[in-house]
Amino acid sequence: MIAAIQPYFNEKALLGKLNYHQKKLDKGEASVLFSHTGELSLESFLDDLRMCSSLNDRVRSPYVEFTLNLPHGEYLNHERFTQLSRAYLSRMGYGDTAYAAIVHSDKEHYHVHILASRVCYSGRLVDDKYSKLKSQRISRDLEHQFELRQTEYGRFNTQSLGEINARKYYFHNALSKGIRNYSTRKELEILLGENLCSIAKEGRSNQEYEEFLGVNLYREIGELLDSKGHFRPLYKEELLKTLDAIYPNCRNIMSMQNKLNSSGYYMRMLSKNGDNYIVYGIPGVSFYLKENSLPQKYRFHALRENGFTQNLGEDAQKNYIYNTSFVCLNKSINFEDFKERMYANSIRVIEHENIKGIYGLSFVMMNVDHPVSFRSSDVSRRLTYSSMERFFHPSNYISDKRGISYIADNEKIQEQLSNVNNALYAPFVSSNEDGVDLSFKRKKKKRRDFGQGKNT
After folding, report:
1. Alpha-carbon distance 214 to 188, whole Å?
2. pTM for this prediction
3. At what angle do helices 182-192 and 170-180 cross, to 10 degrees?
4. CB neighbours of residue 310 within 10 Å
5. Which residues does 210 contact at the CB level (< 8 Å), separation at least 6?
6. More exposed terminus of the chain, fewer Cβ within 10 Å: N or C?
7. How far apart are CA 169 and CA 204, in angstroms?
């Protein structure tokens, strides 16, 4: 069983969560298992939570949600799941609060959501020190008590940690870092007691630690060290050593990527918000980082300057043409000047003509192994021949205004054109096929109203 503790939240978020669960109840995809009052509905639950939170108005986020997820293929009837959920809630310290448990049956795995107040009826705030660590230990006990299959937590992968000989002492090194960190040390003392320092003094290998501590404790400590980020410097050092060994023997980005991938590492070029960049990583241990965390020579622009762009893919070629076109256009005094500037940046401008004259343009990079021809309209609607005409001869088009905001259809490119004289790489929407979490933009949540006569 995996027990997840959601971030604490205020009443505004609470209303959205209650609406969500009520929607599931109305569809018959969920049911209320139990509540602190014994009622099997959510009608008065909001008032109960508000009343509890009002007993301690110093708490800004007075609510919490737990999700208890059974392993795939495991099942407990409502009575047994109620017993398990109540035991978990009580041992976590929420037995004297307002709470309700809603079981969902709309997913492949059976799971329960528990909404609760963090403020007890006495006005005291529930003690949440080391709550995640406590939750894991309680979950393991409940798995044994209710005869459930034992579930592994988090990303710590003992098998991957032992696959490469260079990682032989990673557990010891991460443990040593954890001891030097105040907050991590406190949690390690709970697991290892007073013998913490003497245990870590021994220079054991990963396998020796696993045998010495036992599989469960070894994995539990590994999860803690991983969640605190103590393995990351070790993985970064390993990745850097691999790059240093591969780099001198590569002639382009593609060969570098192939060599890394064949060695069990990861390299992929992406674009976002006006720049091409590279992501490196170690898939076996779910470790990924952007190029700006590594030395300058491993960044995309540095690789390009060192002649590593001969085997650029289609997307990368399109990006280069996109940004270079706008920069050249902004510097040009006429169309012929534009073509010459593009040629100087290794881009050939192809004119398509008929009896009426030029009707279209195409762009092709000249210094790559496999050049791709792009129609100007496919690169940007602002780069068509008719748009060029409007830009260079604004007096013929009264409604148009010449300027950066006209020629660039991307706000960041406009800013770059205003401040930078050299060509930069431009954005494109890239898919994330490898499942690497690289997005940092939060999605806006749709606001929901609860308890106002609408069950949406």
Report:
1. 15
2. 0.47
3. 110
4. 14
5. 158, 218
6. C
7. 7
Residues making up the chain, counted from first to last:
456
Give the pLDDT of residue 242: 92
Element (H, E) at 211: helix 206-213
Distance of CA 244 to the CA centre of its chain: 27
The predicted structure's pLDDT at residue 415? 61
Cβ(13)–Cβ(77) below 8 Å: no
Question: Which pLDDT does position 312 carry in this prediction?
Answer: 66
3-state per-residue secondary structure call for 46-80: HHHHHHHHCCCCCCCCCEEEEEEECCCCCCCCHHH
Q: What is the C-alpha separation between 25 and 19, in angstroms, rounded?
A: 10
* Block mean pLDDT (10 aa), the chain, length 456: 85 90 88 90 90 90 90 80 93 94 77 93 90 86 84 66 82 91 86 78 84 81 89 92 88 79 83 70 86 88 69 74 83 89 87 87 83 89 86 66 54 56 36 42 51 48
The per-residue pLDDT for 435 is 44
Q: Which two tokens stand for residue 268?
A: 């992929």
* Token couple for 313: 């893919």
Do 334 and 440 form a contact (C-beta atoms < 8 A)? no
Residues 6+ apart with CB under 8 A from 50: 11
DSSP state of 193: G
Count of CB atoms within 10 A of residue 10's CB?
A: 13
Q: Which residues contact 285 (CB under 8 A, 6 or more apart)?
A: 155, 157, 160, 161, 231, 235
Nearest of 152, 172, 176, 151 to residue 162 by alpha carbon: 172
Cα 320 from chain centroid (whole Å): 26
DSSP 304: H
Q: How many other C-beta atoms lie within 10 A of the C-beta of residue 144?
A: 10
CA atoms within 13 A on the CB side of 98: 20
Collapsed DSSP state (helix, strand, coil) of residue 201: helix
